[in-house]
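By convention, each integer encodes one residue's backbone shape. The lines below illustrate.
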Amino acid sequence: MAQDLTGQAIAITGASSGIGEATALACARAGASVALAARRADRVQALAQRIEQEGGRAVALPTDVTDERQARAFVEHAYEAFGRLDGLVNNAGVMLLGAVTGADTAQWRRMIDVNVLGLLYCTHAAIPVMQRNADPAGGHIVNVSSTAGRNASLGAAVYNLTKFGVCGFSEALRQEVLHHGIRVTVVEPGFTESELLDHNTDPMVQAGAAHRRQEIGKVLESEDVAAAIVYALEQPAHVSVNEILVRPTGQRT
């Protein structure tokens, strides 16, 4: 039987827009206190203010998760702000598409830094912090992957690599921390309306995305993915939802 998030503290990365912003709002409305991480300080500060105005509790902690010290400080400050840490939503990510041949390898490093290392740094910091909680409920780590973590496709090879890695890491981590009462969920959204595609300036990539959107029809909204994340977080401590794959109805793969 599902429960709400009252009394819980949830830390969310990539909270300045898209799925992260929607997840912060959904968690706060479900009763959680939320710690918000993103590089864009003005955006997370405005979001924290909005949550407070709605009657929730929020703290904005501008953070670059690719910097291990900042990632660790984010987790520690989230714990200090609320006196506990029940959940970590590793949502920060970038999607830079294109062929391997002739690629700008700086884009590869950027994706690996955010999608993989940022997630690892925050997770590594969160596990011992969650174990400080006074009650035996443990904690919950939610890693946002993608359908690109299940199906490889032309033009997305390195993005696929990062998201396949998130899925593999999540399952191995689940097996490692279950004896501490910590649950792990990987969420794999399909085509979602967000800023991710805006990072791509290649006209071929933009044309391909536009064609795929037309083929799918109605794509996911950030709130749809946030609802899936909150569903996993709301389950009682003995229920571990390990994987959620959510696609637009019109998306084939």
